[in-house]
Design goal:
about 140 residues, 5-stranded antiparallel beta sheet, 3-stranded antiparallel beta sheet, 1 helix, 10 strands, about 5% helix
Length: about 140
């Protein structure tokens, strides 16, 4: 999978404490699939995109995330899920998609965080799977100096 790309507004919202990455605050982060090309300058909220329809059993995925320092004293903080994320078509074919988008579902406007570009469109037919392969630590992104 390609490099994770942040939406510009996410950085501001994080700095303004409008988004909280910790699990203790109850913020829920989700991933959705879209074929709408993200624009990091102008897309701020989920409503700025068109999520693919629920055909073929498609639903967005809720993360089981953690926000923690990679090792004590490193100053490098990791936002990670507890596993790779897998979508499976069931009873039909998913709409075509290219991008996987992360957003804060708890935020009042479903604030966009970032996305991955698959590099080409995907057509997921009945019983087939698409996996968002994260690294060995299931890292989504890190923040460091």
């Amino acid at each position: 999978m390609a490099t994770f790309v942040f939406f510009d507004e996410f950085k501001k919202r994080l700095g303004d404490a409008d988004i909280d990455l910790t699990t203790s605050t109850g913020h829920v982060f989700k991933l959705y699939l879209t074929n709408t090309a993200p624009n990091v300058d102008t897309h701020d909220d989920k409503a700025d995109h068109t999520e693919i329809s629920s055909t073929g059993g498609y639903t967005s995925k809720t993360l089981t995330h953690a926000w923690a320092e990679t090792s004590a004293g490193t100053g490098i903080w990791r936002f990670a899920n507890n596993a790779d994320v897998v979508w499976t078509a069931s009873g039909g074919t998913f709409d075509t998609f290219r991008y996987v988008v992360l957003y804060d579902d708890t935020h009042a406007s479903d604030a966009l965080v970032g996305y991955w570009d698959n590099g080409s469109t995907v057509s997921l037919t009945d019983t087939n799977t698409f996996t968002l392969n994260l690294d060995a630590n299931f890292e989504i992104f890190t923040l460091d100096g």
